[in-house]
Structures are given as C-alpha cells and as structure tokens.
Design brief:
The chain is α/β, with parallel strands linked by helices. The protein folds into two domains: 264 residues, NAD(P)-binding Rossmann-like Domain (Rossmann fold), CATH 3.40.50.720; 34 residues, no CATH class. It contains ten helices and seven strands. The strands form two sheets. It has a five-stranded mixed sheet, sandwiched between helices. Strand 1, helix 2 and strand 2 form a beta-alpha-beta unit. Helix 3 packs parallel to helix 4 and helix 4 runs parallel beside helix 6. The longest helix is centred in the middle third of the chain and has 22 residues. The chain binds NADP nicotinamide-adenine-dinucleotide phosphate. NADP nicotinamide-adenine-dinucleotide phosphate binds next to loops.
Length: 304
C-alpha cells in the first residue's frame, strides 16, 4: 500500500523520503519510481535503528510537508509472542512504538513546513463495533497494565496469554489514540489523519497476510477466495495506495484530528468517508497515558 502510494505521489512530482527495511528493498523501490525520491533504511523492530534514522533526517534539516506512518504487520492466529530488539512484543513494537518514536523525533521537521500534516494508517479492527473488529477477541487496552509493567509483556492489557489477532487490533487502536494525542499536543494546528484502508489481500505470497498465508495456507486461501472473489468486499492494493496518496494531498481535509474509513458501499465498491472511532479510540485520557508510558518505555529501551 505504501509503495502504491509512493508511485502516485512520485508521479505527481512530490519529493519522497521512503523508509525501507533494508538496502535491497530500497534499491528495488527507488528503481520503480518515476520522480525524485531518496530512501533511508531501518528495521522498525529496533528502536535504536529508528532513532538513528531520525537523527540522519534531523541532521539533513529538510522540512517535511507530510509524515506518513503506514508500515505494519500482524501475526493473526499466532499464540506465541515474538519480541523486538528491545524485548517488546513485535506487533506493538513495530506498529506503534517505532511510529511514536518517529513522530516524537520528526515533529520539528514537520513544523518547518508551511502546511504540514500527519497521516497514520490504522484499521477498522480497532473498533469492536465494526464487522471486522468483532471477529475474535476485540481490541481493548484495559488500563495498559502490560505496558506499565515494562518490556517483556505479551499483551498491552497485562494478559500473559498472547493472541496475535487481538495484539494486532490493539496496535491499531493504539494508532488511533496516537493520532488523538498528537492532535492534542499540536493544539489542532495541522491535519492529523488516521484512516482505515479496508481489507486488502494481495494475490501473491507477500503483502499484509503473508504470515497467515504461510501458517494456515488452506484457511487463508479459503478466506481470501470468499472475501475477495465471491463477496468482493476487499479493496485492491493500488486503490488503497491511491487513497493513502489522496489523504497526503487533499487540501480539503481540515486541521485537527480526523478518522476516515474506506467503507464497502456496494458489490465490489468502496468509498472513503469520515467516520467515528470506537469509544476507546476517543478516550483522550487513555491516549495521553499510552503516549507517556510508551515514551518512558522508549527512553528506557534506548538507554540500556
Ligand atoms: N492489508 C489490509 O487488509 C489492511 C487493513 C487495514 C489496515 N492495514 C494497515 O495498512 C498498513 C500497510 O499494510 P499493507 O497491507 O500494505 O501490508 P504490507 O504489504 O505487508 O506492507 C507493510 C509494510 O510495512 C513494512 N514493515 C513491516 N515490518 C517492518 C519492519 N520491522 N521494518 C521496516 N518495515 C517494516 C513492510 O516492509 P517489507 O516489505 O520489508 O516487509 C511493508 O513495506 C499497515 O499499517 C496495516 O496495519 C492493512
């Protein structure tokens, strides 16, 4: 999705800085873009690497018109947690903590731009009231007991039993709360946009469902066939990328927090609409607590 958005933005003449996991991906990505782009490489599962890449960008002092926090992973179906370089559960470490660190460090570059904005890719699964959010255990951060206990937790609500599907939903709820908290800190001075792209299942072995395709090929194959080919409730990756590019560009989006969902509106048809978040996703106290506890965990992790 990020690559498809980059293609659109690059063709429109924007100057892109693209974060890629490694040099091979960076070379391949840049070779397929038509416009001006540079890459930085960083494994988001390592906060030290995120810090280093932010320092590189800060040293360069180039203003950022838009900061797009879009990378993400899921291990739905997994019952064993995996951990980042700093011993933080991987879904939370990559989907949320690495992005909070980037936002914390790169805000000064955004604030140098004339009309900056932040775009954060969340998901409707953050909302227990949505169709996708109801499948399996719903997102619920509790009182953030896991995060309060520090690195090594399995689940943010303190449960010791890992549930990969719920961990992903929780991380996307964290994305929504991060957008709320950033908007509060910025005093609604720029658009802070969280959004949900809808269900995007690529036909190849990669993409967002790569883990499920390997761990449960039959189940995932059946799910993909029903959702994508029979019910046609999925969005294509290139359309999702175009929507992401639109959110980066659209001058009509006002300053302050907004949340958009790419809704299924007809057989095979989607429409991007402003939508309410879940109740928990609108809890400003929880948003602030999540930010502060995460900032403390980042500081501790980087100092050891
Ligand atoms: N697909 C869906 O149905 C769906 C639905 C709702 C929300 N979303 C959200 O949309 C966003 C984009 O997902 P997608 O569908 O485009 O999935 P994707 O094809 O798997 O892309 C995810 C991107 O994140 C990067 N990434 C993952 N872990 C990383 C790490 N440790 N370090 C650096 N980069 C890392 C991947 O890099 P590599 O290519 O190197 O792996 C890839 O570029 C995610 O935030 C996801 O949660 C997706």
């Amino acid at each position: 999705m990020g690559f498809e958005a980059a293609k659109v933005l690059s063709a429109q003449g924007h100057e892109l800085t693209i974060l890629c996991r490694n040099q091979a991906t960076a070379d391949q990505t840049l070779s397929q873009l038509s416009g001006s782009a540079r890459s930085v490489t960083c494994d988001l599962a390592d906060l030290s690497a995120v810090e280093e890449v932010c320092n590189q960008l800060l040293a360069d002092e180039t203003a950022l018109d838009a900061l797009v926090l879009n990378a993400g992973l899921q291990y739905a179906g997994a019952s064993e947690a995996q951990f980042s370089a700093q011993n933080i559960e991987l879904t939370f470490a990559v989907n949320q903590l690495a992005h909070q660190l980037m936002a914390m460090r790169l805000l000064p570059l955004l604030q140098r731009a004339a009309r900056p904005r932040l775009v954060i890719t969340a998901s409707e699964v953050h909302n227990p009231g949505s169709g996708a959010g109801k499948v399996g255990k719903p997102a619920d951060l509790g009182e953030l007991e896991g995060l309060r206990a520090g690195a090594g937790f399995a689940m943010l609500n303190g449960s010791a039993r890992f549930d990969g599907n719920k961990a992903y939903k929780d991380s996307k709820l964290c994305n929504v709360l991060m957008a709320r908290e950033l908007n509060r800190q910025l005093d609604a001075a720029m658009p802070v946009i969280a959004w949900s792209p809808g269900l995007v299942i690529t036909r190849n072995s990669g993409g967002f469902f790569r883990y499920n395709k390997r761990s449960n090929p039959l189940g995932m194959g059946a799910f993909a066939f029903v959702a994508r080919d029979l019910l046609r409730i999925t969005e294509s990756v290139d359309n999702a990328g175009r929507l992401l590019a639109q959110l980066v560009n659209d001058p009509e989006i006002p300053t302050g927090f907004s949340y958009f969902t790419n809704k299924v509106v007809s057989f095979g048809g989607h429409r991007l609409e402003p939508t309410d978040t879940s109740v928990e996703g609108a809890d400003l106290q929880k948003a602030e607590a999540l930010w502060q506890l995460s900032a403390q965990l980042i500081t501790r992790s980087l100092s050891t």
